[in-house]
Specification:
- There is one protein chain.
- The protein has about 450 residues and is α/β, with parallel strands linked by helices.
- About 50% of the residues are buried.
- Helices cover about 35% and strands about 20% of the residues.
- The termini are far apart.
- The protein has three domains: about 10-95, Rossmann fold, CATH 3.40.50.720; about 100-310, UDP-N-acetylmuramoyl-L-alanine:D-glutamate ligase (3-Layer(aba) Sandwich), CATH 3.40.1190.10; about 320-459, Protein-Tyrosine Phosphatase, Chain A (Alpha-Beta Complex).
Length: about 450
């Protein structure tokens, strides 16, 4: 990508990522244009116009795409978009934020991807490094665009980044010093042609790593999704599966994590006892802790800081978050569970009977993957959103299914279906965009409805 005053780089999408990218490229001397088909993006256009950036809001012009030197595509925009397809067919390069960040970044990076647990592990790595006195910048898919670090006057010692498959789809040069793959399960199949395509996107986080880099991988990832590629980096594995042999990495057994590491750590106590840990419940969180510990050590953390950071960790919102007890019934908000694997992991945690609130916008979701877990634990499903009828069709022979029109009715119906000691769990297995702006808004609505119910019954 060459700077030219007679041509331009087009930024596609003006959410937070695209807005930051347009500002960054303009600051680097590029001639920038920006476009977003959403009329609401007009609120950002004024700022960009003042920086000399031309904007096209509420429409797309194919000629604008075709005449660009390059198009920087915001992560949420599908690459099969016709405007992009035509421009690419004419030789216009499609770029992503990871390669642009990598071109200018000189700070070591820990990059975390996977289907579930990314935000938890990214935050925990940041906390482990902070407890070790190591300054960090945390960004990426977690909310703060990576290029904002490049515009920051306060350099950090380590960049800790949550990375999505959408970001990886356009990454060709991205080579993080430490890369983590937490897990793989069906997700985003409305965007990918197959599970194998989605898995290849995730595995590509290791593509450009060198032998002096570190790859941290869940040993339980199945080759059924797609064959594991050859890796150049040093590999550390982790797993809570007792059948997995771990020779270097982290072994999890009876809620204790043993770190099996090179000799340079041999004089340290490398065991994390999680038996009394309440803030990160479930086997999946033991794997998250193991991955975060390995990543933190790879980035220079003090081994002694790991346990203190894990103990002090504040649970993130909308992830297995306890909301209330009402008449002996427990309510949990797991709105972040937007795929079937996350719901399975949530159901595995509970020993009580569960009334499960499912539904929202499907991502070509295969709800049959939930059948074994539902049979074991769930006494009734409350189905809502666009996927409600599909949910009812899959589960009607397994347990009672009630379709509802909204969250308040879902909470009330679940409460009426539950009995003392039961759990009412919002764990939707779907995106939220049919009814809400994001999963956080959905979880907030659930919490508000439960709180209203609590006031009614508990006074």
């Amino acid at each position: 990508m060459q700077v030219s005053q007679k041509s331009y780089t087009l930024v596609l999408g003006l959410g937070r990522s695209g807005l930051s990218m347009a500002r960054f490229l303009a600051a680097k001397g590029y001639t920038v244009k920006a476009t977003d088909i959403d009329p609401a993006a007009a609120k950002n256009a004024g700022e960009l116009n003042r920086l000399g950036i031309d904007t096209q809001i509420g429409f797309h012009d194919q000629n604008t795409f075709n005449c660009a030197d390059a198009i920087v595509v915001s992560p949420g925009i599908p690459l099969d978009m016709p405007f992009l397809q035509e421009a690419a067919s004419l030789g216009v390069p499609l770029l992503g934020d990871l390669d642009i960040f990598s071109r200018y970044n000189r700070t070591p990076m820990v990059a975390i991807t996977g289907t579930n647990g990314k935000t938890t592990v990214t935050t925990l790595v940041r906390d482990i490094l902070a407890a070790s006195g190591i300054s960090t910048f945390m960004g990426g898919n977690i909310g703060t665009p990576l290029v904002e670090y490049l515009m920051n006057s306060n350099p950090a010692r380590v960049v800790v980044a949550e990375i999505s498959s959408f970001q990886l789809d356009l990454a060709r040069q991205f080579a993080p010093e430490t890369a983590v793959l937490l897990n793989l399960a069906p997700d985003h199949l409305d965007r990918y042609e197959s599970m194998a395509d989605y898995a290849r996107s995730k595995w590509s986080i290791f593509r450009n790593q060198a032998p002096n880099h570190t790859a941290i991988i869940n040993a339980g990832i199945s080759n059924a999704f797609c064959p594991r590629p050859g890796l150049a980096a040093r590999v550390y594995a982790f797993s809570a599966n007792p059948d997995q042999s771990i020779t270097q990495g982290a072994r999890i057994s009876d809620q204790v994590i043993d770190l099996i590491l090179p000799e340079k750590f041999a004089d340290q106590t490398m065991r994390i006892d999680c038996r009394n840990l309440k803030n990160l419940p479930g086997t999946h969180n033991l794997e998250n802790i193991a991955a975060a510990a390995l990543a933190g050590l790879g980035a220079g953390a003090d081994p002694g800081a790991i346990a203190s950071a894990v103990t002090a960790f504040n649970p993130l919102p909308h992830r297995m978050a306890f909301v209330a007890h009402i008449n002996g019934i427990q309510f949990y908000n797991d709105s972040k569970a937007t795929n079937t694997d996350a719901v399975i992991r949530a159901l595995e945690y509970f020993k009580n009977r569960v009334v499960l609130i499912l539904g929202g916008r499907k991502k070509d979701t295969d709800f049959t993957l939930l059948l074994p877990a539902v049979k074991n634990t769930v006494v009734q499903i409350i189905a809502m959103g666009e996927a409600a009828r599909d949910i009812a069709r899959v589960f009607f022979q397994v347990c009672k299914v009630t379709c509802v029109s909204g969250m308040k009715e879902a909470v009330t119906t679940a409460f009426e279906a539950a009995r003392p000691a039961d759990v009412v769990l919002l764990s939707p297995a779907c995106a939220s965009f049919d009814m809400y702006d994001n999963y956080g808004a959905r979880g907030d609505d659930f919490t508000a409805c439960v709180t209203e119910l609590e006031h009614r019954y508990n006074g």
